[in-house]
Amino acid sequence: MKGKILTIAGSDPSGGAGIQADIKTISSLGGYAMTAITAITVQNTNTVSEVFEVPSSIVKSQIIAVLGDIGVDVIKTGMLLSLDIIQSLSDVLRDQCNNIPLVVDPVMVSTSGGVLLNSNCIDALISDIFPKSLLLTPNLAEASKLTGIELLRNLDDMRRAADDILKMGPDAVLVKGGHLKGDTLTDLLVTQSSEKIFTSIRVPGKNNHGTGCTLASGIATGLAQGLNLEDAIVRARKFVYKALEQAPNFGAGCGPINHLVRVD
Ligand code: PXL
After folding, report:
1. pLDDT band, very low/low/confident/very high, at 111 (cuts 50, 70, 90)
2. pLDDT tens, position by position, 192-248
3. Which numbered atom of ligand 1 lies nearest the CA of 210?
């Protein structure tokens, strides 16, 4: 086992996304998974029906409990839900996690339309969390919401959004193009000094629940294991691709992927 990863995210009882996807991904890639749970969602492959917020003081003390004992190599955040949680997280990151690389998946809405971030939180996310992050992994809808660029239709649009988001303070931005049409899937990584395009063939089908959580926690695991950012992204993308290919086809809606696949 190599690499200690703390995921700060919400619980998905159907096991495909959120904390559950993160634990499976981190474990499958050989890392050690720790969790600070921000919310308990009630959902299945069809719909998110309820969300129960964990008090921000408890989110904060979960983080502090593991930091001071086991230690954390990389932090990954997913569903943060509320202003209170974002502010507590910001405080603990500033006071106790200064040198720990942070991967932020700016989760806003689930595939099935459930609200995972309250609408009053975008500004706080940008001002309090983004500047502390090594990598942000927005999908097209999130990139659009963050930048105000309404329609992201191609690589040039993704580049414009990525450059705007980079100005919000992270070291790197990975804009995920999975929601563009076409058989090829394109993700764009930008830093202050470089740009890299990652492509793969789209895996057809409806079983894509939790792919964003899986990609971000896969990248966090690679970083915790000493891979550089590009290599961590390449391995995590390969992991998601294989997990999609071997999805078990469970549930009536967008089903889970298979986190037990092996990548080299
Ligand atoms: O993939 C975004 C996401 C994050 N966190 C939780 C989720 C989802 C999507 O369903 O349920 C808890």
Report:
1. confident
2. 999 999 999 999 999 999 999 999 999 999 999 999 999 999 999 999 999 999 999
3. 1
Residue 153 structure tokens: 């239709």
Q: Is the CB of 254 under 6 A from ligand 1?
A: no
Residue entry with tokens 């792919």: 211
Instruction: Quickly state the pLDDT bin for 264 (edges 50, 70, 90).
Output: confident
For ligand 1, the distance from its centroid to the CA atom of residue 41, given in whole angstroms, is: 9
Q: How far is the CA of 79 from the centre of ligand 1 (A)?
A: 7
Rounded CA-CA distance 207/133 in Å is 30
Q: Does any ligand 1 atom lie closer than 6 A to the CB of residue 255?
A: no
Task: Read off φ and ψ for residue 213, nearest 5 degrees.
Answer: -60, -40
Q: Sketch the domain layout of the chain as residue ranges.
A: 4-245
The answer to whether residue 113 scores a pLDDT higher than 90 is no
Helix (H) and strand (E) counts in the chain: 8, 9
- C-alpha 21: how far from its chain's center? 10
- Is the domain covering 4-245 a CATH 3.40.50.2300 domain? no
pLDDT tens, residue by residue, 57-110:
999 999 999 999 999 999 999 999 999 999 999 999 999 998 999 999 999 998
Question: Best mutation site among 11, 41, 112 for ligand 1, i.e. most ligand atoms within 8 A of its Cβ?
Answer: 41
- The strands making up 102-104's β-sheet, listed across from edge to edge, are 48-53, 32-43, 4-11, 74-77, 102-104, 135-136, 172-176, 184-191, 195-201
What is d(CA 248, CA 250) in angstroms, rounded to the nearest whole number?
A: 6
